UniProtKB/TrEMBL annotation:
<keyword id="KW-0963">Cytoplasm</keyword>
<comment type="function">
    <text>Involved in the cellular defense against the biological effects of O6-methylguanine (O6-MeG) and O4-methylthymine (O4-MeT) in DNA. Repairs the methylated nucleobase in DNA by stoichiometrically transferring the methyl group to a cysteine residue in the enzyme. This is a suicide reaction: the enzyme is irreversibly inactivated.</text>
</comment>
<dbReference type="InterPro" id="IPR036631">
    <property type="entry name" value="MGMT_N_sf"/>
</dbReference>
<keyword id="KW-0808">Transferase</keyword>
<feature type="domain" description="Methylated-DNA-[protein]-cysteine S-methyltransferase DNA binding">
    <location>
        <begin position="83"/>
        <end position="164"/>
    </location>
</feature>
<comment type="similarity">
    <text>Belongs to the MGMT family.</text>
</comment>
<feature type="domain" description="Methylguanine DNA methyltransferase ribonuclease-like">
    <location>
        <begin position="3"/>
        <end position="74"/>
    </location>
</feature>
<dbReference type="InterPro" id="IPR023546">
    <property type="entry name" value="MGMT"/>
</dbReference>
<keyword id="KW-0234">DNA repair</keyword>
<protein>
    <recommendedName>
        <fullName>Methylated-DNA--protein-cysteine methyltransferase</fullName>
        <ecNumber>2.1.1.63</ecNumber>
    </recommendedName>
</protein>
<dbReference type="Pfam" id="PF02870">
    <property type="entry name" value="Methyltransf_1N"/>
</dbReference>
<feature type="active site" description="Nucleophile; methyl group acceptor">
    <location>
        <position position="135"/>
    </location>
</feature>
<dbReference type="InterPro" id="IPR008332">
    <property type="entry name" value="MethylG_MeTrfase_N"/>
</dbReference>
<dbReference type="InterPro" id="IPR036217">
    <property type="entry name" value="MethylDNA_cys_MeTrfase_DNAb"/>
</dbReference>
<dbReference type="Pfam" id="PF01035">
    <property type="entry name" value="DNA_binding_1"/>
</dbReference>
<keyword id="KW-0227">DNA damage</keyword>
<dbReference type="InterPro" id="IPR014048">
    <property type="entry name" value="MethylDNA_cys_MeTrfase_DNA-bd"/>
</dbReference>
């Protein structure tokens, strides 16, 4: 069963989508979208509005936006994306709060070289879990903010919240 809820945030109303987490309380997160997101998820017929299932996710998001959480402890739905995308997304998870890396650095971490940087950028752009899987921490090699499905203004806001823009 696919469930969803919405959560107010400084980025606008976030759409949370999940599935029942087998053997665990709560929900396995499938998607976190921001309003107007390129390729963002939209509520489908048959989905169940279940804000109570997302209470833990919502609490962690509030703590993050209040500057009291630097890491998320959530259950993600398994089996999403290609094997390459999952490697890239795992590399995103390893980028610490308040730090940034380049697309080339992510490519090197997943063993993609040369033209592979473009594929890495595409995989990052298909990250279904904005904010909680920190694709906003990936910037251009020259330090410029590039490509964010939620919009560059939101990317800048997230990096500012994390203190990653200091000295720029």
């Amino acid at each position: 069963m696919t469930m969803y809820a919405t959560v107010d945030s400084p980025l606008g109303e976030l759409l949370l989508v999940g599935e029942e987490a087998p053997g665990a309380a709560g929900v396995a997160l499938v998607s976190l979208s921001v309003p107007g997101q390129k390729g963002g998820t939209v509520v489908q017929d048959g989905w169940v509005y279940a804000p109570e299932a997302f209470a833990g996710v919502a609490a962690q998001l509030r703590e993050y936006f209040e500057g009291r959480r630097t890491r998320f402890d959530l259950v993600y739905a398994q089996g999403r994306g290609t094997e390459f995308q999952r490697r890239v997304w795992d590399a995103l998870e390893a980028v610490p709060y308040g730090e940034t890396v380049s697309y080339g650095q992510i490519a090197a971490r997943v063993g993609a070289s040369g033209a592979g940087v473009r594929a890495v950028g595409t995989a990052i752009g298909r990250n279904p879990l904005l904010v909680v899987r920190p694709c906003h921490r990936v910037i251009g090699a020259d330090g410029a903010l590039r490509g964010y499905a939620g919009g560059l203004e939101r990317k800048e806001r997230l990096l500012g919240l994390e203190g990653a823009l200091a000295g720029r």
